Amino acid sequence: MVVFDMAGTSVNENNIVYKTLQKVINEVGNFSLSLDEVLAYGAGKEKLQAIQSVLKNCLNIEDEELAKKMFEVFLVKLTKAYEVEDIFPNANANELFSALKDRNILRVLNTGYDRKTAESILEKLNWTVGKDVDALVTASDVPRNRPYPDMINFAIEKFKIENSAQVVKIGDSIIDIEEGQNAGCGLSIGITTGAHNLAQLKSAKPNYIVNDLIELVNIIDGKR
């Protein structure tokens, strides 16, 4: 089984989520945070958790009510953004999904989005669970979010995977890599197409770092 993060990994959405998050935090709080700061502390996390992390680490603010207010505004603005902005499968995502299916390897999407948002993205991409991918697990499906392994464990239980070492996790953020490591995945892989750069990904000590999803074929086939 391969577990894919969505935004920045299997989905190319030009950082809509984090640009929206940055805008909301700055507008609601009258701050001036950069996109890099928001990405550094918010990438890959459930989005209320991301807001709390950005406020704490960038501004030394721990205000639950402020974070909740920002999160509510964020959900409204993100829905509108996804209605008007173009999003696409990331490079070679469809080709990789097909290659994995040919090898009888399960394809699971997991995400820090809530289920409503994640399903709207799949609809826009024309991806269907059961055809293009085998399952979707979202932050709202489990008690704890990344870096805890709950979403991966949910998929492992769903498909009755006997050993987590049979699972590969790939994502574009440090917290994706940590999630895979905490779940005991056989491989935790970073990809440079999203939130975190090469140096940031290396700091999490993944098994591999790739620049394109299609590189997973050779890794899985044992050719790299």
UniProtKB/TrEMBL annotation:
Single Gene Ontology MF annotation: phosphoglycolate phosphatase activity
Gene3D superfamilies, sorted: HAD superfamily/HAD-like, Putative phosphatase, domain 2
InterPro entries: HAD-like_hydrolase_sf, HAD-like_sf, HAD_sf, PGP-like_dom2
Keyword Hydrolase included in the entry's annotation: yes
Pfam families cross-referenced by the UniProt entry: Hydrolase (PF00702)
Keywords on record: Hydrolase
Gene Ontology biological-process entries: DNA repair
Protein name: HAD family hydrolase
Gene Ontology CC terms: cytosol
Species the sequence originates in: Pedobacter chitinilyticus
